[in-house]
Amino acid sequence: MPRPKLALKLLLFSLSLPMFAQSAPHVDLVKVESRSLSRTVPLTAELAPYLQVEIEARVPGYVEKVLVDRGTVVRRGQLLVQLSAPEMQSQSAASESSLHQAEADVAQAEAQAAAAESTDARLVEAAKTPGAVAGNELIQAGKQKDAAEALVQSRKAALRAASDRLKATKDMESYLRITAPFDGVITDRFVHPGMMVDAAGQPPLLKLQQTAHLRLVVPVPESYVGSIERGKAVSFHVPAHPGAKYTGTIARIPNALDRQSRTMMVELDVYNKSGELAPGMYPTVDWPVASEDKLLFVPITSVVTTTERTFVIAVRNGRAHWIDVRKGPASGDQIAVQGELMAGQVVVRRASDEIREGLILQ
Fold first, then answer.
1. Whose CB among 27, 28, 78, 157 lies 3.0–4.6 Å from 349's, allowing a Cys bridge?
2. Widest CA span of the chain, in angstroms?
3. Is residue 98 a part of any domain in this protein?
4. DSSP annotation string for 235-256
5. Does 202 share its domain with 60?
6. Where are the beta strands (DSSP E) in 75-183?
7. Cβ atoms within 10 Å of 105's Cβ, excluding its own
8. Model confidence over 75-84: pLDDT tens digits?
9. CA 18 from chain center: how many Å?
10. Are the C-beta atoms of 286 and 250 separated by less than 8 Å?
């Protein structure tokens, strides 16, 4: 047989060898994951101050000074408004005078008690000599001593009452100094020097809001309340700062739905040290929602799509095995798939149709 024909037969024989006799280059493998799909839905929320108060006068008086205005950043204990009430100063002076008089009365009573005690002691000593002191005189001295001690106790009680009255007057006088109850920003001012205010809060003096710490109130629909997790970080954005992303932490869950809207008003803690956020803004929250159903996930690069089929390449007995799948929702760099796959099964991380069925995978 001529040599060219022999060479041709050898070539045809080599081409007819089974495909599985060939091997693929080294490939990265990854396991199929089974987990719930985490996704987010946009919910419109509202930012509110963590603390806010309309500051009112606790005693009536005239506004003498207003030391802050709208937009002023204040610290706790800082003086905001000074009121004036001359009649209160008169009451304070009268209380001080009463206290001094009570102190003098106590001193006088104590002196009288000391004299009565001395007289009684002297008579008792003298009575040791028979006939030196009449019995009635000794009894009278004892009674005078007891009366003097009772007077001292009475005067001391009056002194304590006078001291309490002075303290109450001083406390009332201190209410003329209106101070900030917490750190925050003055957002409204309602009074000016010369105005008369009363103790019923008419009119209020100022409005103070804490803006470094905010509440993000999110109305969560009933269908999503099952996935609320206290302490979970949630991102949001506001129209005032396009492209900026902020984060809040789920802090307060009321566990009750609004009857009309069928939503649960969940509160998140937001720390606003930069001052970019403001109470009253309506952010859009990327609310996390978890599906209860378990799905199978593989890397997006593991799914091959051709004109004829969509498949992943699994490893079976060390060889490539194509498995047809249907694509599901994506989650980051992974995608959910449906097909004859199981959790924990090994597939090729970066698959392509060049890795043919039956190739030995290294």
1. 28
2. 173
3. yes
4. EEE-TTSTT--EEEEEEE----
5. yes
6. 79-84, 177-179
7. 18
8. 999 999 999 8
9. 68
10. no
